[in-house]
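To fix ideas at the outset, we first show an illustrative case, written as a sequence plus integers encoding its fold:
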Amino acid sequence: MQPIDPSAFRLTVAPMMDWTDRHCRYFHRLLSPHARLYTEMVTSAALVRGNQLRLLEHSHEEHPVALQLGGSDPVELAKAAVLGAQAGYDEINLNVGCPSDRVQSGKFGACLMREPDLVGECVRAMADAVDVPVTVKCRIGVDDQDEYADLQRFTTTMLDAGVRILVVHARKAWLEGLSPKENREIPPLDYQRVYRLKREFPELTVVINGGITTVDAVREHLAQVDGVMLGRAAYHDPYVLARIEADLYGTPLPERADVLERMRIYIDAELARGTQLKHITRHILGLYQGEPGARGFRRQLSEGAHLPGADWRLIESALSAFRHAA
């Protein structure tokens, strides 16, 4: 396995189902040259037995970018990891945090926190099969398995299996009684538990996830752990990525309109290969979040992107409407 630089994980964007597709990642990369990006979760079964080209597609500009896998079969996960590494991904991440019913029925996601030994077998098989880092994303607990000692045992097992980067969503998951959306909001955040984990396992690169929305919050967390992972904030208010990038790395803060203009070549190329504009513009709706005229910008894109022949002119029109309202 390649040596790991903890600083490469200071700023990361969470893998989010139906959100962080390749169009979203390209857009996020323009806002933050340094952020580590993650794919939506891909099941190992779908990858090994399905359309590898479609599931693994990404652009060179996205790097550093990680492939997140879901599964619980060590042999199958190792095969999927090899496919991901061969496709050029910089990291293979195992999902041990998703609480959805569909994920549980497939025996992967947060339910695996109850079986740390099995997770250890999975990541060891993956790490033996590839040279890129194999990492894990988990919760602080699951259902009634909610003592720090449980998380401690899970972490020790991961270290013994060779894991050196652990991304921890600072909420536990309720696998029964709460929907996936409720699991992102109702269980209370416990950042102190993640901080304690870092103190007790200093050799581990710990990335904290959950409810992080501002530059100041990022700074506070980085005083305690190695990295932060933004989820919904990076999607609904993507310009926050540019603000954090500027604060952490000194990168000049880009004008939003310039970011859009830099999307033009990508959008034109995608339209030429048959991609519908709506699949791209849905990710940029929040670019002007909180700014006067943001609503008109979103409305123009939402109402027009699905129409036949929609192209770059729609974005120019939405931008013009925003400037007029502002």
Summary: The chain is about 45% helix and 10% strand. The mean pLDDT is 93.
